């Protein structure tokens, strides 16, 4: 099910994960103006002394136009919570409900993503091998709701929207006064994503408009935007800059996205609901994502009854009822554009890896895209064997998967 999220301080997320990660030069985001160094602390390789597992922090430097929030990670015995990374304007702590059955001291859900099903799935016990990278974090389908323009009908309906307990993406038009409203900080603290919708909504030169918005996100919210939404859906105007800075640029041409589709991430399909839309228009979109096993993205500008001039505003009560309808399904992942987009790309990278024999072990290695947020995971299952990264066995999550840290660049399956 999609779990309600408790909050943690913005910028630093406590995490119980001790999964090994690799760090390096990272991704350089080139923008106008001064370059600011982004330093992130991640869990280093596991060390064992007198039977106690610990993870000394390892510091890496990411060249960037702005400094992203610092994330920390520790492990050392049984744990019950994990934190999602602050990348792309997201901070949250979610309870983990899976159980580790491999003897690992690591938590079974370091990603902090919601867990599908009721649990109780037995750990695979067959012959070592048979790696499968699960689509959509183990759910049947996925849906992402994004809100454009920093309109007042988004802000004024905070209680109803935040009360849904799921994560949305807020694409801020940063030249508007509303973009600095405290509502967006509270949304950030609750695990939502803040994304780039340019400074002036396309009135200025493309690169400058994007860079100014990226600077605003850093200066105001201390986050690096990793996704953008092109103003008016004109993604072709931003192809140069979007490819340098973002994992995706959301367009406005509606289409479901399959887990193995060769989707153009710089013109990602999205549905704009008609004015006044409610459950009658929204629910079939979620039904299709569920039945076809695909990802539906939604572009919303605001709600009816306001004076903000939102494009094709929708019915608030209908939207709230719809999101609750999706939550009740239990097998459709409600995630931000960053969460689902990074999972989509990360899964492709791991799925393309070919096993290399090292003695009796099978080693899978992958390369992530040049622009990719750190601290992301995919979920995998196997026929049997021990799944490990950097010599540390990964725990089995009783919701039916192992969580694999993408930053590590490889995993090993052994007898």
Could you explain the architecture of this structure?
This protein is globular. The two termini are 32 Å apart. It has helices at residues 152-155, 158-162, 182-189, 206-221, 239-245, 279-292, 316-329, 337-351, and strands at residues 36-43, 47-49, 52-54, 57-64, 81-84, 92-95, 132-133, 141-148, 169-172, 193-196, 227-229, 248-250, 257-258, 294-300, 332-334, 356-358, 361-365, 377-381, 386-389, 392-393, 402-405, 410-414. Helix 6 (279-292) packs parallel to helix 7. The strands form 7 sheets. Strands 8, 9, 10, 13, 14 and 15 form a 6-stranded mixed sheet that branches. Strands 16-17-22-19-20 form a 5-stranded antiparallel sheet, with no helix packed on it. By secondary structure, the chain is α/β, with parallel strands linked by helices. It has 8 helices and 22 strands. Residues 1-86 and 92-99 have low confidence and may be disordered. The protein has a domain at 141-339: Glycoside hydrolase/deacetylase (TIM Barrel, Alpha-Beta Barrel), CATH 3.20.20.370. A hairpin with a 7-residue loop joins strand 5 (81-84) and strand 6.
Based on CA inertia axes, which overall geometry fits?
globular
Average pLDDT works out at 82
Helix and strand element order: EEEEEEEEHHEHEHEHEEHEHEHEEEEEEE
CATH topology of the domain at 141-339: TIM Barrel
Rg over CA atoms: 20 Å
Helix residue percentage: 10-25%
Instruction: Summarize the main sheet.
Output: 6 strands, mixed
Number of β-strand runs: 22
Could you say what the CATH architecture of the domain at 141-339 is?
Answer: Alpha-Beta Barrel
Look at the structure and name the CATH superfamily of the domain at 141-339.
Glycoside hydrolase/deacetylase
CATH class of the domain at 141-339: Alpha Beta
Distance from first to last alpha carbon: 32 Å
How much of the sequence lies in strands comes to 15-25%
- List segments where confidence is low: pLDDT < 50 over at least 5 consecutive residues: 1-86, 92-99
DSSP summary: helix tally: 8
Structural class: alpha/beta
